[in-house]
Each structure stands twice: as C-alpha cells, then as structure tokens.
Amino acid sequence: MNDYSLYFYMKRSVLLFLCFIMLSCSKTGEPVGDLDIINVDINEMSSIDEFVCGESKYICLDSSENCLIEKVDKVMISQDTLFVMDRSRRTVFVFSANDGRFINKISKTGRGPGEYIDLSDCDIWHGLIYILSYPDQKLNVYSPKGELIKGIELPNQYSKLKVVDEGKVWLYAENSNSDLYNFAQLDMASGAIDVKFDPFAENCGYHKDASPFCGQCEDCLYVGKYFDSRIYALSDHEYKPIYDLSLNLQNKVPHADLEKYTLMELSETYRYKEVLHNVTYVTRHDNSLFITARCFFSELGMRDCMIKFDLKSRRVHFLRIGDVLDEHYRFFGRGSIVGYAKNIVISAIDAFAITRMLESNEISDSRLLKVKETDNPVIVLHNLAI
C-alpha cells in the first residue's frame, strides 16, 4: 500500500469511527455535539414524590358576579398578586394570592386607544400586565388598576409573547405573519423589531393554544414548538437546539417534516395518533432538569407528563399526571396545569370537582366547605422537588 492509499484508508477509518461514536451516543442518551439527547421510557413510571414536595397550597377565588371566569387559560403570580387570563372573555382577572379576593380586571375590548380586539396572550412584569392582540397588531401595557401605561402598534402580527425586562419583549408568530420569521425581539422604547430568528416558508394562518416560551435560564429563554421534540435556547444572539426529548411513543415527527409541512398539515396528519404535542415548561436547578410536556396517548387521550433528568448521572424519572392519585397530594392530577412560577406548578380545579371530592369525603378542609359548583375554579400550587 502506497502513502496515498494509506492516507485515504486512515481517513475513512477515522470517519467510520466517528460515525460509530455518534450513533452509540444517540442510543445511550449521551450528548451529540451541542444537542443533549434525553431518552425517556414512558413505561417506567416514577412516584409523585420525585416531582412534587411539601404541602400544597390552594386559593379559592372570589366568585362574585363581576369576576366570574369562563375558562382559566393561564395563571401568573407576581409577589402577592394572582393574574388569571380568560381568553374567551378577553379579560385578565386580578386576585389576591393570599386569600383569592378579587382586586380588579383588565377588560378593554374595542378598537379605540388603550383597547384591543383580542386577548391572544398576556404576561406580567413587576406587576404590569402586557396584553397582546394578534388581529390588530397591538401590545398594550396596563397597571393592575387597568390604567394604560403604554401602547405599541406592532409592525406585524404575533400570537404569543414573553417579557424579558421593561425594555425587551420576545414575540412569536406561530408561522402566521407576512414577515415569515417566528421569533422577533421588540424594543419597547422604539417599538421596532431588533432581532429575528427561525424563518418559515409560508404564512400558515393556523394557531395553537400553547406558548413556545417555556422557561428561562440565565441569559436565554427555553423554547419548545408544536410536534418538535427539541428544546431550544433563545437569546439576543442565537436560537439553537440544546436538548432532544426522545420518548418511546408510537410516533415521532421527523425534523425534516417540521421544516416541510405547515402546522395545520401536521395537526391533520397526527390527529389522534400517539405523539408528543409540545413541551410546556423547562427549568433547571444545579444538575437537575425538570420538564413538562403534553402528549397524546392512544388509549388515554391528551395528558400532561413530567420528566426529571439528572445531567450528571443521566438518570431519568417520568410521570404521567393523573395515572395515580396520591393521598398526600389529593389535588395533584385532578386539574389542568395552567402556569408555573419558578419552582411552583399551578393547577386549576373546577369547583364541581371540588364539591364531588367533599361529598365523597376525599377532602375535609373546612376552608373548602363553602365552595359551590358554580364558583370559580380553585387554584392549587404545588412545590417542585428540584
């Protein structure tokens, strides 16, 4: 063998060896490049104690005539104040987080100054309420008393938002605007778009309920998109995948299809099929990564799932919420998850369910005895075990 042939032989051997290493890492759940693959066996269920701890707190919301909620879409907590978004009523209700007392509501439907056509999404920053309206391309900022602090006419249509600080807001298009970029950073002072990421090919015009903004870590946001198993880091300088959530469900949407097909087409293709729908929350504490995701299961329907991943030991815990009801956490799994506040998971339980639990003697707390079937949902706070 001459030197030239030896060179190519060695080069091919090195390439084959590298491919072998990459495939081996993928199978064992080790990082591949900058992408950390998290393999989750949905058949191995962990106990609730691995995910929540301490005593649950619940808040019975005032149910007077001027604050009746049709549907709890999102709950946010700022210090001792609770904010409840009801998209169907296009209203943000403000309650005391201590006793559920009604404080005020932001309901400014209209086309005039300080008003909005739709409540597409909202967020809270230091007690201020940011309301996004997709149809009329507006972002309005209100005080808890309902006073308009600032109104911005957006250069395009966006369906979701996340406030980073008083001067910076991330907007999400959901493949549904003419700019053809999903993520846009808004400068609150100028009203201009400073940074854009994630271009898409065509205006889909199709919306889902969940926000892609699912957590925050140091100087970036965690982002998860529909039917996408990857969790992305979004910052001023980059948008890149950092984790790949690999659950052994019956179906997994190929990443090539996420680029090729619209959200509407994917929704039709995977309707009633067992598949990951979206990552809803990500938070990290030291070497512990906590993730919640919504999946459709063939025999169970849509369910929220929790994943706890140790970045050092690579150990994974998995819990499908609602499979088992724990006597120490009677409210856990009874309602839908409607928000997060750092290491707290927030659920909303229908008053009807609470009254049925009282009738069957599952709960006996005297503070819940006054709950009637027609009351507002009860908000429950659970501490995450991380």
The strand count comes to 26
End-to-end Cα distance: 59 Å
Which sequence of strands runs across the widest sheet? 1-2-19-18-17-16
Overall pLDDT metric: 89
Number of helices: 4
Structural class: mainly beta
Radius of gyration: 23 Å
Output the helix-strand order: HEEEEEEEEEEEEEEEEEEEHHEEEEEEHE
Shape summary: globular
Which runs of at least 5 residues are low in confidence (pLDDT < 50)? 2-32
* Helix percent band: 10-25%
Q: What is the percentage of strand-forming residues?
A: 35-45%
Main sheet summary? 6 strands, mixed
Describe the 3D structure.
With 386 residues, this protein is mainly beta. 12% of the residues lie in helices and 43% in strands. The chain contains four helices and 26 strands. It has helices spanning 3-28, 255-260, 263-269, 351-359, and strands at 31-32, 35-40, 52-60, 74-78, 81-86, 91-96, 102-106, 121-125, 128-133, 138-142, 148-153, 160-165, 168-172, 181-187, 193-199, 213-217, 220-224, 230-234, 239-247, 275-285, 288-297, 301-310, 316-320, 336-341, 344-349, 378-384. It has a six-stranded mixed β-sheet with strand order 1-2-19-18-17-16, covered by helices on one side. It has a four-stranded antiparallel β-sheet with strand order 3-26-25-24. A hairpin with a 2-residue loop joins strand 8 (121-125) and strand 9 (128-133). The radius of gyration is 23 Å and the shape is globular.
Question: Summarize this, please?
Answer:
By secondary structure, the protein is mainly β. It has four helices and 26 strands.
